[in-house]
Amino acid sequence: MKLTQDQKNFVEDLLSRMTLEEKIGQMNQESPSIVGGFDVPFSELIEMLTDGRISQEEFGRIMANAKQDFHEDDIRAGRVGSQMVKDPRQNNALQKIAVEESRLGIPLIIGFDVIHGFRSVFPIAIGEACSFDDALFEETAHMAAAESRAHGINWNFAPMIDAARDSRWGRVSEGPGEDPLLGSRFARAKIRGLQNDQSSPLSYVAACTKHYVAYGACESGRDYNTTSMSVSNLYNVYLPAFRAAMNEGAATVMAAFNDLNGVPCTVNRWLLRDVLKKDFGLEGFVVSDANAIRECVIHGIAEDDRDAGVQAALAGMDMDMGTHIYKDHLAAEVEKGTVPMAVIDEAVRRILSVKVWLGLFENPYVPEALIEAYEKGLPEEHIALCRKAAEESMVLLKNEGGLLPLSRGQKISLVGKLADDANEVCGAWAMAWKPEDCVSIRMGLEAAGADVRYFPCGGPEGEIDFEEADRACREGDVIVAVVGETDAMSGEASSKAEISLPGGQRALLERLLASGKPVVTVLMNGRPLALGWEAEHLPAILEAWHLGIRMGDAVAAALLGDVNPSGKLSSSFPAVTGQCPVYYNHPSTGRPGSKSKFTSRYLDSPWDALYPFGHGLSYTGFAYDGLCVEETADALEICVKLKNTGDREGTEVAQLYLQDVAASLVRPVKELKNYSRVTLAAGEEREIRFTLPKQDMGFYDNEGQYRLEDGLFRIYVGGSSRDCLMKEVRIAF
Ligand code: BGC
Question: How far is the CA of 113 from the centre of ligand 1 (A)?
Fold first, then answer.
């Protein structure tokens, strides 16, 4: 995000003409409030629905009588800087009030959770990251930006780039997985896709990288829980994606709910002012997460709302999401001198700068013709990209005896409620999909011409119909069982203490296996699951995540071999839940897990991942050979021969890892340093080259200083974090 001198002058001029109330108004974000139809606050109503005090039908009746309050009067009075609305005509109406009826005519910045696509829903991020395809990350973000803008949304609360290693945390679904390098490349590509195409006023949005920071390290995987870690761990694992996003020019950042080493991120001056704004150079602004300023009172860090608001403003929190604390308290605090006017001016300057950069002063509205065009349906190229992204995001975990792909001649019994639920394909944080765009796995198989019969049998919730399962076994040559999680089982506030297959699904699989018919398992889920039993007993497992609106087409294409799976895991899968957190780039211990007793292991379970980061099979095979490492003045030049050993074309993700053998701080057993997607024809061999800049071979210490330390390094190249060729090299920097 760069402003011209004229734009900067425009911001300064505007700022000089604003009253204190108008300035604080810019720091206030509203979302529509539900009013009427019931006498309790809306949040209480949602709780009543969740805990069963009212039924879905009653809730529906109440909502039908309720109205939304968009805070028009406050917008008119200049007391609102931002709104969260997805309807384009409503957005136009609100912008009209802001632009034409408020004293200074400052447009609203309109934010929304467009996490993995708007109406064109792409795979959930943990899935899309499995493609290791930076160009795809960028393309899907670019399309999401265009669709958002066509609906009056100019600020996407994405990308979510929290490194996450504990799959009990429901929000692992929203981000790019466990690795800081993959997370950083994902972050950069997403920022480019959202922000960089400024060819038209409606082709870009402001990104909002979140949640800053270490939210993914919440203790025991329980959402909103405390986090505690060393400075070096913070800098090496959790900050890199944010640093990368800032280097790419991300316009805004959302602070995380959690405390970090005792200070909630919302009021963490060091994190916001020193690291993010000063060191990383954020040019835009920081917004709190929903209600997070008020939650500082409950955290026990502020006595009351006023205190929380003062602490947040002083810490560098520029915009308050949803509490009105800034609106209600900041003016008095400025008058008292507790909050200097310079703090307010800085926040408002940042917010106005993003609005100017977005072109909102010239183009605040969505043209009616564009709204109507989207009402007619999704353009073909949007549907095609949804399908491509879905195809690249699947990971073939296991394929014993080449059971997959299936042939069109085989009679398929398709089993599992998830297999025909088009409402489940989009996953968590998809807020604008339309049922008519969604393709279930059953629909996909039928459209692809498979000989398929469908038996719901049961799903993640409710009873299993075992008789129906027996019928499915009798009638098919092969069973395709679709099992996993509903979309509500991952995402925010969806942590789980047990992450094996939920409900009776394992019993269903046992019953299917007992028939002796081959059972192909398709997983549809929002987090790595604990699959120890499944990996041992099932011959073929395809990890398909929640792949978005074209899920059914993509899964059918993979099952039938029209598409050759190429995804690699962006997160390690445990065998049992008790292994969490399990991740490949673990710090070396003095007693690495092994068969002997006094090592870092469990008595009752494996110590390492069942399916590690980077794992993923193909319908063809790949062999690596001839690893060579050459040192130049400022880099290592690494080459390896990669051969497609099978009889069909396939795409492999070649991965480069580094281990610093001895350093002043314990380093990970391996760290991803680069990757490359390579498509090879049957039998083709190609030399793959990586350049590893020496500058990238260091690490951050506990003062947050980057260190390059001479010594021995191991270079690994291979098709997963576990399966690599290795060469040692001694480096003096
Ligand atoms: C979530 C954010 C989201 C915000 C606005 C919060 O509850 O943590 O990720 O952007 O709500 O909807």
Answer: 7
Indicate the length of the chain as a whole number. 733
Ligand 1 pocket, residue 652 CB under 6 Å:
no
Q: Is the CB of 289 under 6 A from ligand 1?
A: yes
Q: For residue 376, what are its two tokens?
A: 């007619």
59: pLDDT strictly greater than 90: no
Confidence label for 593 from pLDDT (cuts 50, 70 and 90): very high
How confident is the model over 641-698, as pLDDT tens digits? 999 999 999 999 999 999 999 999 999 999 999 999 999 999 999 999 999 999 999 9
Distance CA(179)–CA(672), nearest Å, equals: 7
Among 46, 82, 86, 113, say which to mutate for ligand 1: greatest number of ligand atoms within 8 Å of CB.
113
Catalytic-residue membership of 259: no
CB 720 within 8 A of CB 570: no
Give the pLDDT mean for 141-167: 98
Name the residue among 429, 395, 423, 381 with its Cα closest to residue 157.
429
- Domains (range + CATH), the chain: 10-32+70-372 (3.20.20.300), 33-68 (no CATH), 383-579 (3.40.50.1700), 622-731 (2.60.40.10)
State the sign of the Cα–Cα–Cα–Cα dihedral 543, 546, 547, 549: positive
Using a 6 Å cutoff on CB, does residue 139 contact ligand 1? no
| Cβ of residue 157 lying under 6 Å from some atom of ligand 1 | yes
At 713, give phi and psi (nearest 5°).
-130, 150
Structure confidence at residue 48 (pLDDT): 85
pTM of the model: 0.97
Q: What is the pLDDT of residue 236?
A: 98
Side-chain-side CA neighbours of 102 within 13 Å: the count stands at: 29
Give the tens place of pLDDT for each residue, 327-367: 999 999 999 999 999 999 999 999 999 999 999 999 999 99
Measuring from atom 12 of ligand 1, which residue has the nearest CA? Answer: 113
d(CA 267, CA 277): 14
pLDDT of residue 61: 84
Instruction: Please indicate whether residue 431, judged by its CB atom, sits closer than 6 Å to ligand 1.
Output: no
Best mutation site among 155, 174, 254, 321 for ligand 1 pocket (most ligand atoms within 8 Å of CB) = 254
Indicate which residue of 134, 162, 166, 289 is catalytic.
289
DSSP code string of 173-225: GGS--S-HHHHHHHHHHHHHHHHS--SSTTS--EEEEEEETTGGG-GGG-TT-
